[in-house]
Amino acid sequence: MNKKIFKKNFWILILAIAVLIPISLIFAQEQGTFLTPSIIKNTRPNDVTGNLTIKVQKLDEYSCPRNWIDIKTVIENLELTIPANDVLELPPIWNAYKGYVAEESGHFRVYAEFKYTYYGDLFIETTTAEFSVGELPLPECPAQECIDSDNGLNYYIKGGGIGTAEELDGQICAIVLGKGEDPTEIFPSNRPYSIYFDHCINNKNLSETYCELDALRIKNFECPFWCLDGACLTNIKDHSKYSEENSKHAFLISNLDPRLIQQIKPVVKWIENRILYEYPLLIYDGTNTNEIINILNELEITKVTAIEDEQVKGLIEDLPDDLNLLIEVINEPDIFSFWLTFIGLVYVEDNPILIEKAADYASSLNAPLIIQGTPLKSKNIFKNKYVICIGDSLSEQICDEYKK
């Protein structure tokens, strides 16, 4: 028994006590005989008026999952009234419509549906009964297969999935189909399953398809910045600025401005395309020259990017030539050059606790960190950017989103 439509949840408990027993069908299964249904039994204390439809369907033996094809509608929307606590015999009705004669071999079923309204609620009761004409083995479908073009939960590439959608977290997968894409460009055209594409629910949230246990599923994801055309927009580093062997490339900075140490964090550690990148960050306090040299030797560093100030300049002059280092000296504004493109950034008020928190958050987003009152903050830096603000004193005109 399948109750497919409820208009009001209030009646669910009451109606579960006294329901219309679904149609019970009995069939003669020999070729050329009529198919004979039995009864509809009304167990309610009131008369029920509804519409009866009965179809004969045949199994498409070449389809997986199985697909039943209507071959004849024997009875369509026939209005019937069943008295309270009474039974309606169906054979006279079926025979009046001459039923159906199965004149070919195959796998068949009768699909019966009775629609009725009870105290304002629409019910659809359905039942089926399968039978075969001729000694034919029931075709076996292969194991369910699921394919995801962007290989799992990849929020930054628009992909698609092919498979059978399943319920997830209590919600049926409701995925926008196609969105103007040609599915044959991504998936084989002979697949028997549904094809779905990632799509933006709005300009911030993404509906992402993926495969789990050979079933197609969906996850709603809040993009760090904007969502556009089925993918989250993301920042991209300029990897030409980094040594191919990240363990051989170190960054050097002094401790004269603790805020600058935090601003450099997203440059030396970030996540991009689900990959964690991390480069050594050496902090010079004006006295630990030997410690810096030992670390350079132990890590076999070949390239150093140094953020210039007087303290770092003095250290570079003291480094021995036998380290054979390629030293690149940059200024604070050059920090932005390590991004090939960025559409979002993190802006934090000048508060030491919040700055440290914001630096870690910016690293996780692969986003530049701008600190209130520092040279990196300029009028144009926020233009056409998605700005995530941390701190209560920041201007609402700048911020697209606030984080605690």
Description of the structure:
- The protein folds into three domains: 9-133, Immunoglobulin-like (Sandwich); 147-232, no CATH class; 237-403, no CATH class.
- The chain is built from six helices and 27 strands.
- It has helices spanning 12-15, 91-96, 258-268, 289-298, 310-318, 352-365; strands spanning 20-25, 37-42, 48-60, 67-82, 86-89, 106-118, 121-133, 147-148, 160-163, 194-197, 199-200, 205-212, 215-222, 227-228, 231-232, 236-237, 249-254, 269-272, 275-278, 281-284, 303-307, 326-330, 339-341, 344-348, 369-371, 386-390, 401-403.
Q: Helical percent range?
A: 10-25%
Residue share in β-strands: 35-45%
Overall mean confidence score, pLDDT: 76
Radius of gyration: 34 Å
Number of helices: 6
Q: How many E strands? A: 27
Shape, per Cα inertia axes: elongated
Taking pLDDT < 50 over at least 5 consecutive residues as the criterion, the unreliable ranges are 1-37, 166-192
Largest β sheet strand count, sense and barrel closure: 4 strands, antiparallel
Oligomer type: single chain
Strand order of the largest sheet: 4-3-6-7
Integer count of domains: 3
Taking the alpha carbons of the first and last residues, their distance comes to 50 Å
**Structural class, from secondary structure content?**
mainly beta
